[in-house]
Amino acid sequence: MRFGRSLIAFSLVITGTFAQAGNATDINHVAWLSGCWQLDGQPPGSGEQWSTLAGDTMLGTSRSLQAHRTASFEFMLLRQHDDGRLVLTALPSGRNATEFNATRVDANEAVFENPDNDFPQRIRYQRIDDQRAWARIDIAREDPAQSADFPMHRVRCSETEPSR
């Protein structure tokens, strides 16, 4: 399955330590994603929006606009499973869900991987500071030709709506 260039995320990009058993993949580490994010250099309304953390779950959406129309969209779910796994589930542009397991998580970065997916195989969210973040989608081996970066900045959620 191929993802549109709207991500995430935020689908979404964090650097940290390798996840280990226990709280190394604690969803509380990514609660900073909560709120609205505008993609840098893109039309207003292009970006991600994440719910607050509740019930070990965060819900997210992303959207990219071109010529005042939605070019791509995605529904996302960040969930801490009972077995301790932190999983990012992505549903791009109405297609089937794909799960990405957290492989590294800390207070400033989260990395999710699914080596069986064609593209992306890895999704990263990184907090630059309280107002800026960076997301990247790529394949598991480093190949700049098969990656996309999504720098973004925090906005009030009312600012994510494009003007009419």
Automatic annotation (TrEMBL):
Signal peptide positions (record): 1-21
Keyword Repeat: no
One Pfam family this sequence matches: DUF6265
Stretches that traverse the bilayer: none
Record has Signal as a keyword: yes
Chain spans, region Disordered: 145-164
Domain DUF6265 positions: 31-138
Swiss-Prot/TrEMBL keywords: Signal
InterPro entries (alphabetical): DUF6265
Domain of life: Bacteria
Protein name as annotated: DUF6265 family protein
UniProt source species: Stenotrophomonas capsici
